[in-house]
Write a structure and sequence with these properties.
There is one protein chain. The chain has 9 helices and no strands. It is about 65% helix and about 0% strand. It is mainly α. Helix 1 crosses helix 3, helix 6 crosses helix 7 and helix 7 packs antiparallel against helix 9.
């Protein structure tokens, strides 16, 4: 029996799961998705080789769980910061700056694109993880339109285009081609004008 390092088995499992997710994040940043096995993750965490299957049956399930884990933390910070500012322009700056900081903190993975290694269904589920971020952006734009601060007719199209502008800086920032500060100003300058922001 493995040693329980928490007050309850549930707490122990939760803590171990967190360690596994952290180790996975470190390893794929170092080696790329294709070069990391569940055995590598178990070794980094100090789990028995077979014990990791009690948490994740395969790499794709670990990938999806890790994406959920990152998204939950990202959204929690973002929502707290957005609640502290009153205007759509200020909220948009926070959204853009947070995304760009995330791009900068997670350099492009070594090796071929992730799409080369995961199944179509898993890749679609990864794409679905972007929906909460896009919905949050949509709420900010819709509120800005309602207050008269922004001037666009189609909030859904405007949201999709603004989100695409943010995503366009993923590779330049992740590769170091653009600085975070340059990327934020590039995105904001374009998006605020496109949204008809007052004073732009």
């Amino acid at each position: 029996m493995p040693k329980i390092s928490a007050d309850t088995l549930a707490q122990h499992r939760a803590a171990t799961r967190e360690r596994v997710l952290t180790a996975w994040s470190e390893l794929i940043a170092e080696r790329g998705y294709d070069a990391v096995s569940l055995a590598d993750v178990a070794a980094r965490v100090g789990l028995a080789r077979t014990a990791i299957y009690n948490y994740f049956p395969d790499k794709e399930s670990l990938l999806l769980a890790h994406t959920d884990w990152q998204l939950e933390r990202f959204l929690a910070v973002l929502r707290e910061e957005l609640a502290a500012v009153p205007t759509a322009a200020a909220k948009l700056r926070i959204i853009v700056a947070r995304h760009v900081a995330d791009f900068a903190s997670r350099p492009l993975l070594p090796g071929p694109s992730l799409a080369s290694f995961v199944g179509a269904q898993t890749y679609e589920r990864l794409e679905d993880h972007l929906a909460p971020l896009q919905n949050l952006l949509r709420d900010v734009i819709a509120d800005g339109i309602a207050s008269g601060e922004l001037d666009v007719r189609d909030v859904d199209s405007a949201t999709a285009l603004a989100f695409a502008c943010i995503g366009a800086e993923r590779v330049p920032v992740g590769s170091g081609e653009h600085s975070a500060e340059q990327a934020v100003e590039n995105i904001l300058g374009f998006v605020l004008r496109a949204l008809g922001a007052a004073g732009r």
